[in-house]
Every structure is written in C-alpha cells, then in structure tokens.
C-alpha cells in the first residue's frame, strides 16, 4: 500500500513537470500564416460565424457518419458468427449489404457524391 502511494506521488510530480514543460515550449503566436487561413470547411476564423453554411459539406459529413456506423455494426458480427449457423450469417450479411448498396445508389443518384 505504501508503494502505491509513493508511485502515485512520483507520477503526479512527473506529470506536473511535463505539463509545465509543455506550457513553456508551446508559445502560441498569432502571426502564423497557417493559423489564420481557412481550415477544411472553407470558413475564415476571423470572419463572422453567421455566414451561410454549404449543405454540400453537411451531406459529406452525413455520408461519412453512415459508413462509419456501418463499420460499428459489422464488427460484432464476427463474434456472433460463433453461435449462429453459417446460412444465417450469410443471410444477415446479405441483407445488410443490400441496404448499404441501396443507400449508396440513392446518394449517387441524387449527386451527393460529386465533389464539384
């Protein structure tokens, strides 16, 4: 128990030292050209935030989230494969991939995937 207390105190001092070193080293400068340039979405950080938002960036973000959630759904199927029959797994995956393909076709048909 005494060892845990000593290690905790040493770790706390080490973390405080690293934090103070980081504060000393990371001097921020507003003169940096890259900091004042627009970032990813095209908005300038020094303009008004009440300008119209492009719906194209929103649609791309939604498409990214949909395909990200798809990965979260597919990963547990590997664990479920152990307890199900082989034919059940193929049917579940086939239905899932058909729904995903129909969604991709819908996005393609409505020109949501055009980057221009």
UniProtKB/TrEMBL annotation:
Instruction: Enumerate the UniProt keywords alphabetically.
Output: Electron transport, Membrane, Mitochondrion, NAD, Respiratory chain, Translocase, Transmembrane, Transmembrane helix, Transport, Ubiquinone
* Catalyzed reactions: a ubiquinone + NADH + 5 H(+)(in) = a ubiquinol + NAD(+) + 4 H(+)(out)
Entry's localization field: Membrane; Mitochondrion membrane
Q: Does the keyword Mitochondrion apply?
A: yes
The membrane topology of this protein is: Multi-pass membrane protein
Q: Which family does it belong to?
A: Belongs to the complex I subunit 3 family.
Which PANTHER family does its entry note? NADH-UBIQUINONE OXIDOREDUCTASE CHAIN 3
Protein name in UniProt:
NADH-ubiquinone oxidoreductase chain 3
Species this protein is from = Kikihia sp. 'muta tuta hybrid'
Tell me the lineage of the source organism. Eukaryota, Metazoa, Ecdysozoa, Arthropoda, Hexapoda
């Amino acid at each position: 128990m005494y060892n845990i207390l000593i290690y905790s105190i040493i770790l706390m001092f080490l973390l405080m030292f690293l934090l103070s070193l980081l504060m000393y080293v990371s001097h921020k400068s507003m003169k940096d050209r890259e900091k004042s340039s627009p970032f990813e979405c095209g908005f300038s950080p020094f303009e008004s935030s009440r300008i119209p938002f492009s719906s194209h960036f929103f649609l791309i973000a939604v498409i990214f989230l949909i395909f990200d959630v798809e990965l979260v759904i597919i990963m547990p199927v590997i664990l479920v494969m152990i307890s199900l029959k082989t034919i059940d797994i193929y049917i579940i995956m086939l239905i899932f991939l058909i729904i995903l393909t129909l969604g991709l076709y819908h996005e393609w048909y409505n020109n949501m995937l055009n980057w221009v």
